[in-house]
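Internal tracking record. Fields below are filled automatically when a chain is submitted to the structure queue. Please do not edit lines marked as system-generated. If the sequence contains nonstandard residues, flag them in the REMARKS field before resubmitting.
Queue: standard
Priority: normal
Entity type: single polypeptide chain
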Amino acid sequence: MKTYGQFCAMGRALEVIGERWTLLVVRELMSGSTGYNEIRRGIPAIPRDTLAKRLRTLERAKIATRQSEESGASSYHLTPAGEALAPLMIQLASWSLTWDDRGLLPEHLDPKVLLWDIHRRINPEAAPGSRVTIEFTLSDRPPNDQRMWLVVNQGQPELCRTDGGYTTDLYITTTTHALASWWLGELDWNTAVASGDVQISGLSHLSRAFPGWFLGYALAPAPPSPE
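SYSTEM-GENERATED OUTPUT FOLLOWS
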C-alpha cells in the first residue's frame, strides 16, 4: 500500500480508502450488494480486475470480509469498521448536494445504475403484497434504451429489460434527470407530477402509493431533529 508519509490521521485513512473506486465499492456493500456481479451492476464502469483488487484491499484493511457460499461463489460483507464509514459517506454525499454547483451532468445519468439503486431500496413492509409490474419510460434516452420494468412480488423487487409476460400495472414516463433528482431528494414527487416532469398512469391506488414504497436514497442526509 502506498503511503503519503504523513502522521495525519486523514492521510492515513486515505491510504486505505482513497483509491479510485474504493468508496463506491463500500457504497455498494452498504446498500446491500454482496456478490461480485451485484456490485458491478451498481458500478458498471469499474474494470473487473480493478474491482477484484479493491475487494482484496478492503479485506486486508478489515473493512470487508469474504465468505464462501455453498454454490462456490463468494459474498462480501462490511465489518464494523466498514459500517463505521456510513456517516462519512453520508456527509460526502451531503457536501456534493450542497456545494457541487455542477449539478447532475449527462455523464452522471446512467439509467441502469439509477434504476438498480431505486429497485434495491424497496421497503418490503410498504410495498404491495401482490405482484405489481411498473414500466419506466425514460424519454431522454434513445428509443432502444428507453424502457425498463420493475416487478415487485410480495415485497421482493426484480429489475428487468422486459415485462416478463406480466400485465403492467403502472406506467411512469419521465427523464433520467428528473428521476435522479427525485431519488436524490432534490425534487418532490408530487411537484414533479403536477409540473409534468413525471407522468404516472395506471391503477389509481397504486399511483398514489408508489413513492411510499421506497426507503429512499441510502446516502440522503438525516432530516434535522425537531426542536
